[in-house]
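Our consortium's second objective concerns turning raw sequence data into structural hypotheses that experimental partners can test. To show how far this objective has progressed, the report includes one record in full. It was chosen at random from the queue rather than selected for favorable results. The single chain below, 141 residues long, was entered without modification.
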Amino acid sequence: MSEAVRSIPRPLVKTNQWVIVLSVVASWITHAEWWLLIPFLAGVLGILFGYNPIMQFARLFLKEPLHSYFPEDWEQQQFNQKIAVLCLGAGFFSFAWGWTAAGYVFTIIVALAAFIAILGFCIGCFLLFQWKQYTYRRSHR
């Protein structure tokens, strides 16, 4: 018996990535760190409860059935979301506590990774693949 592979339609993933990029840029322009809470809280909800409000809202605008869109691997997207949430949270608290340099470092990392993913290369996917390769080689020595 085959196990069903969980996936997320690519347009929903891209929408989430755009929200990350635009929220980070908005926080830089306005000097208001609260913009980072939009993708941060959506990401936390997605990780903890499997419900990302950004993706759920974007679903309303899909014209085709979900299965007709290119699927993104759910496990991989969860890994990516954990990295994004970590960077967004660290950026938010860094800015809130007046650690501006650290805030910029964390938000640049997450915005750059999300924008590069929009362009077609997933840094988180690459990192997870390398980690799996490393653990496989280590266990088969």
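The partners drew two points from this record. The longest helix spans residues 74-96. DSSP finds six helices and two strands in the chain. Both points have been shared with the crystallography group to help prioritize constructs.
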